[in-house]
Every structure is written in structure tokens, then in C-alpha cells.
Amino acid sequence: MKYCIAKALLLISLFISTITIAQTPPPEPMCDLNGTITAAGKPLPLATVTINNTTLGVASDMDGEFELGFIPEGEFIVKAQAMGYKPIEKTVSFKKGASIKLSFELEEDVLGLEQVVVTADRNERKRKEASTIVNTLTPKLLENTQSVSIGEGLNYVPGLRLENNCQNCGFTQVRMNGLDGAHSQVLINNRAVFSNLAGVYGLELIPSSMIERIEVVRGGGSALYGSNAVAGTINLITKDPMVNSYDLTAQYNSVGAGTDGEAQGDYSVNMNTTIVSDDKKTGLALYGFYRDKDPYDANNDGFSEISQIENLTLGARLYHRIDYRNKITFDFMRVNEERRGGNDFDKLNHEAEISEAVDHKITTIAGTYERFVGTGSMWSVYGSTQNVDRASYYGADKSLQDYGQTDGMTYNIGIQFKSDFGKNSIVTGIELVHDDMLDQKLGYPDYENPIYAGDGTTIEGFEHIPNTTITDQNKNVYGVFAQYDRQLGPVKASLGARFDRYKITDLDHKEGNNDGNVFSPRVNLLWDVIPSLQWRVSYSQGYRAPQVFDEDLHIETSGSRKVIHANDPNLKQETSHSYMTSFDFNRRFGVWNVGLLVEGFYTNLDDAFAQSPEHDEDTGVTTYIRSNAENGAEVKGVNFELTASPNNKFYIRAGYTTQSSEFGEAVELGESDFLRTPNDYGFFAVDYIVGEKLTLIASGTYTGKMKIAYYGEELKPGETPIIIGDEDPGVIRTTPTFFDLGLKAEYQLKVGGLPLTAFAGVKNIFNSYQDDFDSGFNRDPAYVYGPTNPRTVYAGIKLSNVFGH
């Protein structure tokens, strides 16, 4: 396997080298460009100046000034842009030996309509020109909501909701448009390398400090991104170094402050720095993150509701411009995280009454070669790989037999071509996604069966139980995709399709073998009805292959019940048909800029994956069998998003979703509704800049009622356990609603000449948090819902040379 990966990446390197060497190098450029970028008459730092269809680019300094050299002769379009401002383009004719000076005055883009996005069609587009709605989550919003990890910030995107699924180890997932986390494709810099195994604890593993922005596209994306992009895609775009900078943030959280549970500490440190060479040809970004979080016990029963976490993440992004047409970029990320839930944290896992613990070592490496050709085209060749080494323990009652080891290797290699010509554009490519996963239950000494000496009295040793392979899965997906866009007056039409050939092999259990061919089409229409109103409509088809999924490797355990997951031997692929329509209204009323998005969605799932529990009374093990629901499932609803701002000092953003998710038949405890899925939820965020130094921020999330299964022993008055077939005795409960309100203040100052930002705040002020956690040794750890954290008080400082940005 490792040989195959090395060979594939070597072939990419050779291909890149061949292209680079074979091309005739251009004459040494002799032109240069300099100037200033301002907004409202004031210098605008960290704005970027790029030259279209080249690799050339630079960022303005703290005085709004920029310099860019090594520009070839010819006529080019120079673009100046910055987050929160409308870009400006100027056509400039460069002549050998000339030095050109330009000035740009950028206008505010309060509603983000002019922002460039890439996830809609794997090509750079202004948000208002993309045929699919793209929501962008910026580092500023992550800071305002004090989101330590990526997952927390996604609560502030319409249709998305982060939930905790386990009291013991804090297994989280992000639901999109009513579908669970396995229905969404997570991308890193447009590449599907975030593996099933890494997704077990999902986006909570990734620190917010490494992100330039997060782009979210709701609706089927399999036409471009392949398997699992049924509900949508979440694209994590890392920071590109454009200017010398640094920032360091240290924060302390008191989790559970002022609640019935004893408050616990959560420390974190974020570091970022970027270095750019004098000739602007080479740039390096480095980032680091450390977190130490203590376990939190909400009901004082001696067992944690929030897991203990220690995380160390280091990463880098390096680019080098070979010349003005060719560029190479490399990315590296290493995550070391240990987390544990249960009790007796000062003891070894098998000495505790309950322990769910995982030790992740995740290494991600990626490389991309880009070559611009002609006047509007670009080739890119890419390869990325992710290796996951996960040691685990899911056990109760001081069991020795519940240690495990899971290893996963994923790689994604491909080639893509995109071109703009007149009112048309095309994106096409070929790629291979490979995923290996080996999950083993580790052997142990069986002290119940000692080996005696010949006289039958002296113990010579103990029988040793060997390792047991749970799954040894090998998956290959070969895909070819294309999308064509055409502008027809006020209407833009997009036609896309992807053909995938997948093959899944279980090397240990042959009944897990599966293969298939999938054609996934997509049609999008964008109509500029009037300048302030856009209407979009789309149809897309997606699929999920019948593989072992991320949540299958998470085991919920208690003193009386252990929950595992397995696929039905006859499991077939799940196919989705998604229909979406939206009205995007953006207009200025007096001093107010107002944007309102109304988006309707409907998804029909053929052969929908449904999980039915089967309980073995002898072993106490409940197995959730994934099979195809005969009558499928459907998800439908409406997303609303409102943005409003009168100026650059006051900004409001809010979202609300109302929806329903239902199988065509009863699945668990006689219920056909998707469990853990509220029919309505939403968010809001408001920030207000007072004067020049003080910013006040309010944010919050709303979670509506939802149905959830309970399999514990603490029944409420009037409850009668439901028993259907081989299911565990349980009941269906309806949760209350929650409103999690947070307030924050940050103040900018200088200490010893160093720019410093101090901040403090409270999350979940009213402690709107679950109050009926199951308790004790025999608790049901999956009975967890609502906001992921109780009231939390925090404070911190940020040191940065890009003060105020």
C-alpha cells in the first residue's frame, strides 16, 4: 500500500518536472508595479494585488503600500481585493524596463457578494456569479464566536448544526440540511482527503487557526466531488502566505462556571506566522495549536459528560513561483490528539469502571502544481495523502479485551483543467481516491484460563488471546468529472456530471466486497431577475457507497450495554435526488445594506441507509445493522439567512432552518423520524465596534425539539419500555428547546510598543444545557443532546503585528 502511494506521488512529481523542464523559459521580466490601496480614504493593509492568469501576487503592508516585480511585457488585468471589499480590476500595458504606479480605492462589500469562492464549481467565481449558493465562514466570525475548533464555528452557517453523540468520548458530527455527518463531504483545499477514519471525531480535530476561510455548499455535490457529497460539501481553505506576519493567541476557558457541576479548565494556544521572500516568489505559512481540556462532570456522578482532550497540531503551507506561469504549493499538517471519557482518569484505561479513549496521530501531506496557459486557462496536477494512526480503548468493568488499533491511509491524485472563454467556462478532470482501513481488536492475556505446571498446582503463565481483525477494507474510486457554464443574458446555466467506478474489498470478510458504476448529474440555473434579486434552481444526484463508515468505528459502552455497528451483507449503495431553489435578495435601504436568502431543499433517498439495533442478552452487545430502507427516506425544509449592516462598525447575521427528515418506514423503536434531528434550529451573531479600540459581540444558537432514543434504566413516570423484535428495551423521548447565548468584549491596546488584543466573554450565559443526563456505571452514553457545552467563562490575549485585522 505505502509503495503504491509513493509510486503515485512520484509519478506526479515526474510529470510536474517534465512539464517544467520541457517548457521554454520566458525572458527575464523587467517590469515592476507599485502603488497604494485605500478604503474610505485610509490605507488598507493586507489587501492583495494579483495579475490575472499568472502566478504573480502581493499583499499591501500596514500603510496600504505594495510592490511587485518580475512582470513580463504585455497587457494584463491587475486586480486589487480584500476580505469585505469589492474587488477592482484595471487593464495595464507593461513595457520592458517600465515602472508603473497604481492606486486603488476599494468600496466596502458589506454583504460579501463580491467575494471569490471556489467550492461551487471547482473554479474561482464571485459569490454572486456562482450558480450555487456558497456560504463563507471567515476567521473573524470564528474569533467573534470564540470557536476553538472548526466544528464549533459551523453552527453559524444556515442548515448546519454540530452535535455531540456520546457522553463518554465526545464523538461529534456536523449535520447538514437534516442529514447526518456521513452525508457531507469534507474537503481540504478542494481535495477529498479527509478520510472516513479521520471523520470519527470530525472537524473538532482541526483548529480554527489554520483556516483562511471555510466554504459551505448545501445540496448534492457528487457531480464534482464524488461519494458522500449528498447533503453538501465543507471546504477548509488554508492560509496562503502573502506578507510577513505573526500572531499568537492564548485563551483560558472555565467550563461549567457557576453550574451544578464543578468547573473545569480548557487551555488553548494558537500560533500563526507567514514569511515571504523579498522577490515575492516564495512564501511559507506556519501554524501551531495546543489544547489541554479537563473532563467535565455535569451531574456529579463521577462520570464525565465532556471528555478530556490534549491536542497538539502543527502545520505548514509553502509555495514557490517557478515563473509567472508556473507555481508549486505544498501543505503539511500533523495532529496529535488524546481524548478520554468515563471515570477514574488517574488510572489506566482497563483499571477504570468505564473508559472510552482514543489517541490520534494524523499526518496530511499535499502537493499541487499549477500552470497557466493562454489568456484564461489553467492546468493543475495534485496529489494528497492522509495517514491515520489511532489507538483506542472502549471498555467497561475493567476489561482487558477492549484495546484496539486502527490504521488508515487515504490518497487523492488527479489532474484538472479549467478555462474561461467569452461567456463560457469549463472545468474537467480525472482523479483517483483510495482509502485503506485496518481495524483490529488487540490481543490480551486471558487471566481466567491460567496455564499450570505438570503437577497442576503451579501457574506457569496465561493463555494469550490473539488480535482479531474487525475490518480490513480497501476502497478505490476512479472518477472523471466535467462542468460547463454558459451565460445567456441574465441567465447562467451550469451542466455538470461525474462518472465514478468504485470497488470496495474487505480482505478479511469477503461478504463486504462490493463494486459499482455511478453516474451523478447536476443542473443549475441562475437568473438575475433584477440587480438586487437572484433566483437559483438546481437538481443533483449523489450517492454513498456501501462501505465501512466513520461512525462504525466508534463504540458506545457502559456497564450493561455496548453498542457497535455493522453493515448488512446485502447492503447496496444509497442514491440521492436533491432539488433546491433559492431567492437571494440584496439591496441598500438608506444607510442599511440588507441581504435575505430564502432557500428551499428537498432530498429523496433511494435505498436509504438505515440502522436497526439488534441486542444480544448473553453478551450485552447491541449491534446497529446498516441496511437499505425499502421505502427510502426524504428530507425537506427551508433555510433563511439575514445579513444587515449600516456601516463597517455594526453587523448582524442570522439564520434559521425549518425542516423534516423521515424514513418511509419505522426504523428504531417504531419511529420513522430521523432521531437527533430537530425540526427547527438557528443562530445569530452581532458585532459592534465602539470607537477605535473596543468591540462588543453577541452570538447565540437555537436548537428546537427533537426525538431521541433512551436505553437506560432511569425511566420517567409514565414511561414504558418499547421492545420490538431483537431491539434493546428503550423509550423515545422528546427534548426541550435550547437557546445558547454568548457575549464577548475585546479591546485593542499596546504594551511596550507591541500591539495586543485582550478579550473576555461568556458562552451559554443562561446555561441552556441538558439537565437529565443518564448517570452511573450502567448509563446510556448516547443519551446526549442539545448544546455541546454548559456555561463557559473565558478570557485571553492576542499578540499580532497585523493589529486590528
TrEMBL record:
It comes from the Bacteria. It is found in: Cell outer membrane. Residues 1-22 form the signal peptide. The keyword Cell membrane does not apply. Keywords: Cell outer membrane, Membrane, Receptor, Signal, TonB box, Transmembrane, Transmembrane beta strand, Transport. The keyword Membrane applies. It is a multi-pass membrane protein. Transmembrane segments: none annotated. Residues 128-233 form the TonB-dependent receptor plug domain. Residues 285-765 form the TonB-dependent receptor-like beta-barrel domain. Coiled coil: none annotated. Belongs to the TonB-dependent receptor family. This is TonB-dependent receptor. It comes from Carboxylicivirga marina.
